TrEMBL record:
Residues 1-20 are annotated as: Disordered. It is an enzyme of class 2 (transferase). Its EC number is 2.1.1.-. This is S-adenosyl-L-methionine-dependent methyltransferase. Belongs to the UPF0677 family. SUPFAM superfamilies: S-adenosyl-L-methionine-dependent methyltransferases. It holds the Pfam family LCM. Keywords: Methyltransferase, S-adenosyl-L-methionine, Transferase. One of its GO terms (molecular function) is methyltransferase activity. GO terms for biological process: methylation. Gene3D superfamilies: Vaccinia Virus protein VP39. It comes from the Bacteria.
Length: 308
């Protein structure tokens, strides 16, 4: 469905069980939206998303979550709405910059893998002719469409929603929606890969490579830890579990992870790996390392296809 296609089917599919935002992994899209809302209202915000708080308020599961740090009794001392939300704010900014750099370099098609409630099609200053494809499960996209339609929000690029399960073959859905594999593209997997089984991540990276012309770029977030359960008692996982009932470690796939950066370099991509803390230092705000830190193994990978 495209943004210009009108209201679309109004189905009550925003349940976790059938792929919506009210439970399961779909709820994590609301967590990121709440973090972006909080970041938006900070005086020193790294990224602004005026739509984020509307998603939070519209979903029964999150309607009473904070959307400003002032609504959190312990403020920045709260591991979830302070440090973890700031992490998402920093991640949003860094990946905004990545996509805009790609667009300035000439890319005109962007694919958001596991797009969730990402509103980059609306927020960013796209050059004329850009198309943003948003792939997520049908229920998440239906909820997003319903909220944005109520706000009369207008995208700054052509926005194409592509409902698909990224664990199965999604390439035909994307090309069927108008994606052109012969033209360079920018891809983003923000907060996605660790929810997928390892073989599904391997297949996803292979598909991205197959659909990417020379000059394409991909950014993704990975976790390096061998045993994520070692961080079960970390401050951010504990606060996320206890304050809003999201047990991230039950949602992550805990099986072995592929080396996706390595796989890309074998296929003609250059890849650089950064820690979030590198960008905290660059921007002068964001999370810094702490003991028993669930963010310790997080890496942001930036890859460019230098030869097809
Ligand atoms: C943590 S959210 C991140 C959303 C978005 N990238 C952002 O940063 O705002 C994870 C998203 O991945 C989506 N997702 C997880 N597994 C998926 C799958 N198998 N197929 C499609 N989407 C999936 C979820 O529905 C959810 O919207």
């Amino acid at each position: 469905m495209t943004e210009t296609a009108g209201g679309g089917p109004e189905r009550r599919t925003d349940r976790g069980a059938d792929g919506g935002v009210d439970g399961g992994v779909g709820l994590t899209a609301l967590l990121v939206a709440a973090a972006r809302a909080i970041e938006t209202h900070r005086h020193d915000s790294l990224a602004r998303d005026v739509h984020a708080e509307h998603f939070v308020r519209a979903a029964p599961a999150s309607a009473d979550w904070p959307v400003r740090i002032q609504q959190v009794p312990d403020g920045d001392g709260n591991p979830l709405w302070g440090r973890f939300a700031r992490y998402f704010g920093l991640r949003t900014r860094v990946l905004d910059d990545f996509l805009l750099r790609s667009a300035r370099a000439g890319v005109r098609q962007v694919v958001l893998l596991g797009a969730g409630l990402d509103t980059r099609a609306f927020r960013l200053d796209w050059p004329p002719g850009c198309v943003v494809f948003e792939i997520d499960r049908a229920g998440v996209l239906a909820f997003k469409h319903r909220v944005l339609a109520g706000l009369s929000a207008a995208p700054g690029a052509t926005r194409v929603a592509v409902p698909a399960d990224l664990r199965s073959d999604w390439a035909a859905a994307l090309t069927g929606a108008g994606f052109d594999p012969a033209a360079p593209s920018a891809w983003l997997a923000e907060g996605l890969l660790f929810y997928l089984p390892g073989p599904a991540e391997t297949a996803l990276v292979e598909t991205v490579d197959r659909l990417s012309a020379e000059g394409s770029a991909l950014a993704f977030e990975a976790k390096l830890e061998k045993d994520l359960l070692a961080y079960r008692d970390s401050a951010i996982y504990t606060a996320t579990r206890e304050q809003i009932g999201i047990d991230l470690l039950r949602l992550f796939d805990l099986g072995p992870r592929p080396d996706s950066a390595g796989a890309l370099t074998e296929r003609g991509w250059s890849a650089s790996m950064r820690t979030p803390f590198d960008f905290t230092l660059r921007h002068g705000r964001g999370p810094l390392p702490e003991p028993n830190d669930a963010l310790e193994g997080n890496r942001w990978v930036f890859a460019h296809k230098v030869r097809a």
